[in-house]
């Protein structure tokens, strides 16, 4: 495997991933915000079940319901450590990393219990997941944000091509010190932030729909849509899957062998 230049002070990496991916069947579950509908999915039918983040905060459910639902999801992860993937959403980050990365919907009354639950299980949560050229994150990765991120972290590459382990890099940044981790939570002007571009937790659809990465098939939540929606480019795409406000549906991905 080819190792790319590193900029992180400890343990950073950019590897080419194994391209010999056998057929896999994946299920993504997006932006639950306390909803228990994920329990309707038969996870035995899938090789991987990827929760796209935003387990917390709600206009409908109370603190107890949100906490219990998150606890059940964490328990599912413990029971299926390799099958279940838990990604971080912008609403989760403010409890996981309190008092940083605040966003609307924050519940002061839920903070103590949610922060404690996230803290005890922090190692179970990650920024991104990758299978072949499929990249899963809460909000999506844009070319402009990634270029900025690579410069800031000392990983300056001309472009991300097929086989590039981008999820590995983003997850490593999340494990690093605050000056690297904070880049992941950049909030652009479209979402009321002061950063030039939104990162993979906060990027607005107006950013990702016009500047998504080539060489990757991205699957994201974050932005409510009435139905699954995919935008295609010459060698990449991005699919928006946050439909639970209007219907109970989960997005499937089949990766052929």
Structure, described:
- GO terms for molecular function: hydrolase activity.
- This is Putative phosphoesterase.
- InterPro entries: Calcineurin-like_PHP, Metallo-depent_PP-like.
- Residues 24-213 form the Calcineurin-like phosphoesterase domain.
- With 257 residues, the protein is an alpha/beta fold.
- The protein has helices at 63-79, 90-96, 108-120, 143-153, 166-175, 178-181, 205-211; strands spanning 24-29, 48-51, 84-87, 125-126, 128-131, 134-137, 217-224, 229-232, 237-242, 251-255.
- A hairpin with a 4-residue loop joins strand 8 and strand 9 (237-242).
Task: Summarize the biggest pleated sheet.
Answer: 5 strands, mixed
Percent of residues in helices: 25-40%
How many E-type strands?
10
Please provide the ordered H/E string of secondary-structure elements.
Answer: EEHEHHEEEHHHHEEEE
Across the major sheet, the strand order is: 4-3-2-1-10
CATH architecture: 4-Layer Sandwich
Return the structural class. Answer: alpha/beta
**What distance lies between the first and last C-alpha atoms, to the nearest angstrom?**
21 Å
Categorize the overall geometry: globular
Beta-strand percent range? 15-25%
Domain Calcineurin-like phosphoesterase: 24-213
Organism: Spirosoma fluviale
InterPro entries: Calcineurin-like_PHP, Metallo-depent_PP-like
GO molecular function, one term: hydrolase activity
